[in-house]
Each structure stands twice: as structure tokens, then as C-alpha cells.
Amino acid sequence: xxxxxxxxxxxxxxxxxxxxxxxxxxxxxxxxxxxxxxxxxxxxxxxxxxxxxxxxxxxxxxxxxxxxxxxxxxxxxxxxxxxxxxxxxxxxxxxxxxxxxxxxxxxxxxxxxxxxxxxxxxxxxxxxxxxxxxx
Length: 135
What we know:
The protein has a single domain (2-129), classed as Nuclear Transport Factor 2, Chain: A (Roll). It is 28% helix and 42% strand. The chain has 5 helices and 6 strands; from the N terminus they run ααααββαββββ. A hairpin with a 5-residue loop joins strand 4 (88-98) and strand 5. The model is unreliable at 1-7 (pLDDT under 50).
């Protein structure tokens, strides 16, 4: 019976998931344990551009320690959303940031968002640096 209810719930559109994703880019969200715990699924995993795999607890701790300095504004573009199951979507996009040393860094990003009751939470994220772009 619960599966039938899940199918009847409205599927998110790109704007819904983009808004959740971009919330994670904002310093006030990145500094809020409550906000992060609400956005990241209990079994969240991130494959970092460094090759390090982060679990939810680790990434929350790292985000809470950020000082917000040294990095310019994150600009994101080319968003695309694809359904991967009745209760999960894949969001892909590109981001670019100019660091304080003037180096521009462009990253291909992908996130899996999964329905958790009446909300969506990020289950997985990966960022891959675009080769040949950083200037």
C-alpha cells in the first residue's frame, strides 16, 4: 500500500531539485547542522574530486568547519534532471568557481536525490574536475 502512495506523489521538477541542490551551496546552510541533516540522507556518500570517499557524518563535520574564505562564488549551469526510479532522480550540472589565487575551476557534478517520506534528500554526490579547463 505504501508503494502505491509513493507513486501518486508528485514527481519533482528540475526547479524543485535544483533549489535543494543550490541550498547546499549557500554558506548559511553549510554552517547549519540541522539544515545539512535534513538535506543529506542517512546513508549519504560523496566521491570527492580528490578521490576520497566521504560519508554523511564526515561531510557534515567538514562543511561545519568551513570558514567561507578563499573561494569565490560558485556559478552553476547546464542543469539536467532524469528519473532513475519511482522515488529517485539524477541531477547533473556544471559548476565554476574562481579561487582567490585567480585559478578558475570547472567541475562536472552529479547528485542522486531520493524521496524520503514527504521530502527529497541527497543520497549521493560526485564532483569531477574538467580536465583542460582550469586556468
